[in-house]
Amino acid sequence: MLETDILIIGAGPAGSMAAKHAALNGAEVLLIDRKSEIGSPKRCAEGVSKDGLKRLEVTPDPRWIASEINKVRLVSPNGTDVLLDEDKVKLSEVGYVLERKVFDKHLAMDAARAGAQIMVKTLATSMEKEKDGIIVHLEHMGNPMEIKAKIVIGADGPESRVGRWAGLKTGLKPGNMESCAQFEMVGVDMKQPGCLELVFGSVAPGGYAWIFPKGEDIANVGLGVLSTKTDKTAYQHLLEFVDTYPGTQKAQPVELNVGGDPVAGLHKELVTDHVLITGDAAGMVNPLDGGGIISGMTGGRIAGEIAAKAISDGDYSKKNLKEYQKRCQKEIGDSFKKYLKAKEYLLSLSDEELNSIADAFNESDFDRISPTDLLKVLVKVSPKAMLKLGKLF
């Protein structure tokens, strides 16, 4: 049986950040991933903010940057668009569209350089607690094996089994899990180079559609929907969208990705004895826009630091690990509570109301654009928003 201080299950951005910072802080770390290739298949639109990378001290690398974003186009149901240009306003929450298959490997390699060990094609099948640690049963390259760890960090995505095995309440109601479908497409007609497009309304019930450019005529084209708002699948909505949206009618898909996106905010329980959960497994996804790369990496960094400190303390109890929950709530969860309220409000709007808001936005002046800034303007232009969100934004 192998033994290690910290076992991290899942080598996405959150897991790799946890591995890196646990290793940098002196712990013996093993990072495992069930896939043969870290980063594949991708499960998101691949957008990430420059400010977020800077906060996390991740230096941009041309190898994993597909395109740089300098404009955002918001499109209402009737086609009215609001164009936000970096030359006119500060686009604080946009920056790059990534190549996740390269980016995720880059983060895993950083973890390895910090001292973490990595095992791919390694599936965690169950785990059991002992007095002094956790035994995790695995299949490595198809062969059974066991690992004993003092602390396990679950970074195994929205369908996380680690949280369930540990007895944490991580289940989500259908209304809190978006179903997403996305094509990577070639032949996309993008009249605004470097422009990220978001399309709202009944085209994507409970969510929105997106076009994230990755090249001159290449883009991630996808959408997220709530099953409580539609009888169709996300894939069916995606097919309808690409058939009707002007920029995608002549485009061809070269890749399809589907998956769930938790949009209920941070889970109430992130720790128990010997176990932490982070990233999508912990609900570290912005409920308003569905983005989770930067917030997941932030949570992963905190998890690595707290777990390493617990190893140094020799105390792996829930009480000692609770600092992780407190820091995550302060750095991630508090803002997510506001965005969850905003999401609930936006879900109540009809296509006609969204069209009116787009008209009002076009008559407004912006200095800085982030989800919070947009909501502040929304409160100013909409009496209904003022009533629902005025105290929050």
Automatic annotation (TrEMBL):
Cofactor: FAD
A cellular component annotation (GO) from this entry: membrane
Catalysed reactions, semicolon-separated: 2,3-bis-O-(phytanyl)-sn-glycerol 1-phosphate + 8 A = 2,3-bis-O-(geranylgeranyl)-sn-glycerol 1-phosphate + 8 AH2; a 2,3-bis-O-phytanyl-sn-glycerol 1-phospholipid + 8 A = a 2,3-bis-O-(geranylgeranyl)-sn-glycerol 1-phospholipid + 8 AH2; CDP-2,3-bis-O-(geranylgeranyl)-sn-glycerol + 8 AH2 = CDP-2,3-bis-O-(phytanyl)-sn-glycerol + 8 A; archaetidylserine + 8 AH2 = 2,3-bis-O-phytanyl-sn-glycero-3-phospho-L-serine + 8 A
Gene Ontology MF terms in the entry: flavin adenine dinucleotide binding; geranylgeranyl reductase activity; oxidoreductase activity, acting on the CH-CH group of donors, NAD or NADP as acceptor
Details of cofactor binding: Binds 1 FAD per subunit.
Group of enzyme by EC: oxidoreductase
Keywords of this entry: FAD, Flavoprotein, Lipid biosynthesis, Lipid metabolism, Oxidoreductase, Phospholipid biosynthesis, Phospholipid metabolism
Residue ranges of every copy of the Digeranylgeranylglycerophospholipid reductase catalytic domain listed in the record: 177-259
EC number: 1.3.-.-
Binding residue positions for FAD: 14, 33, 44-45, 47, 100, 124, 280, 292-293
GO-annotated biological processes: glycerophospholipid biosynthetic process; membrane lipid biosynthetic process
Biological pathway: Membrane lipid metabolism; glycerophospholipid metabolism
InterPro entries: DGGGPL_reductase, FAD/NAD-bd_sf, Geranylgeranyl_Rdtase_fam, Geranylgeranyl_reductase, GGR_cat
Keyword Lipid biosynthesis: yes
Other notes: Reduction reaction proceeds via syn addition of hydrogen for double bonds.
Database matches in NCBIfam families: GG-red-SF
Function: Is involved in the reduction of 2,3-digeranylgeranylglycerophospholipids (unsaturated archaeols) into 2,3-diphytanylglycerophospholipids (saturated archaeols) in the biosynthesis of archaeal membrane lipids. Catalyzes the formation of archaetidic acid (2,3-di-O-phytanyl-sn-glyceryl phosphate) from 2,3-di-O-geranylgeranylglyceryl phosphate (DGGGP) via the hydrogenation of each double bond of the isoprenoid chains.
Family assignment from sequence similarity: Belongs to the geranylgeranyl reductase family. DGGGPL reductase subfamily.
Protein name according to UniProt: Digeranylgeranylglycerophospholipid reductase
UniProt source species: Methanobacterium formicicum
